[in-house]
Amino acid sequence: MSIINLLNVGIAPDELNNSIVSMWTRESIRPVDFYRTGFEVIFYNHDRQHALNSVLSSVIPEGKEILITGEDELKNVAEKADQFGIQSIIFQAEIDEIHLIEALLNSHKGISHLILVVEQDDGKIENYVRNISPFLKHRGIGLILYCLVPVQRVNDRTNGMVDFMIGGWENIPDKSFIVARRSKLVQTEGNARTLTCDLYASWQWSLRSRGTHIEPVEM
Hints:
Elements: H1 3-6, E1 9-10, H2 14-24, E2 39-44, H3 48-59, E3 65-70, H4 74-83, E4 87-92, H5 101-107, E5 111-118, H6 124-139, E6 142-147, H7 154-157, E7 164-169, E8 172-181, H8 182-185, H9 199-206
Parallel strand pairs: 3-4, 3-5, 5-6, 6-7
Antiparallel strand pairs: 1-2, 2-8, 7-8
């Protein structure tokens, strides 16, 4: 990744860092200690479309498919995936239809990740995840949350099921972030389909401000 592209990776100001923590959990965690939860935050001086592209480019293995579900903006995600040569299946469903995803997973063995598109934080997130989590766990499918609006306490409400969360702010459209499970994030090294959307390189660049004193993961 060139230095020009790395300039898209920034250090979030305190108020945005605190906002990211509250979107993720109800726990009182200092942003500087967030890494001790086992998750990492990558902050971008760019819109959430760039954050989505970074996840698609780096997280989805070559030759694998994604399943996109939710109620809106699903086609946009599919179009982004297609730019990276990733095949996708769109399943637009209400909560009471979400159980039908099991049939799709049974007929498409190459799905590695499910992307849940969140258009509003109205309590449906936990209902969606509660209904699909048994299928995802059984098949080892990763869960990516693509949030088009700010949300609250996602990790708590989904019982820790989310591997990657893409988010941002309505009043600051040129900033975005990714919360990534570290054990999944390290697996993206060398996987990026394009250097401009290399999630692992962005994470490594963001670590330059952390310093050398690292506390154990215990939160």
